[in-house]
Fold:
Amino acid sequence: MKIRNTLVIFFAAATIYAAAKNSRDNAPMEHFDVNSLVFIEEDDLGLGFDTAPYLPENFDPYCGEFSLESINYIDEAEELELDFDTSGYLPIGFDPYIQ
Structure:
């Protein structure tokens, strides 16, 4: 029993010593420059067909203004009415909230 306790204490002390000695303060600091990143841009998406016949003349997807007011949001507060009784189509005692 004494040998096991001694080994456990020795192992714990060695672990604490190794953790304390392994400090990251001596590690070299690497500085990352975002401007050094190289971006690869592919011009051809390869849709498999020419999109020009389907677009208006002088179409430019990058010009124009964007407004948040132009987005139509769905109001979640409106309750959906099915206009018919669903109880005839469900089993007796059906509760969708019970798993």
